[in-house]
Design brief:
Number of helices: 1
Oligomer: single chain
Shape: rod-shaped
Length: about 80
Amino acid sequence: MFLPKYPDNPTPPPAHIHTPTAPTPVRRSLPSVSIDQKTVAAVLVGGVVLTALLAAVAVTAISVAIAAVVLRSLLRDQHRR
């Protein structure tokens, strides 16, 4: 009842012949780069170190700026007296 009915004489699908209008360009593969865990670890550690150095420079610059403003304020008050 639910079995499919197959044709007695199956006909093959017609062959499709495609002729390109222009020659296809030659694809060249890129050289493969193997990345191991040591390289990834080195890049991560380098990134962390550079980020820490950048943060240290920023904190130092802010500290020097605050110290300069305080010293300028103290010296200005001293000259007014």
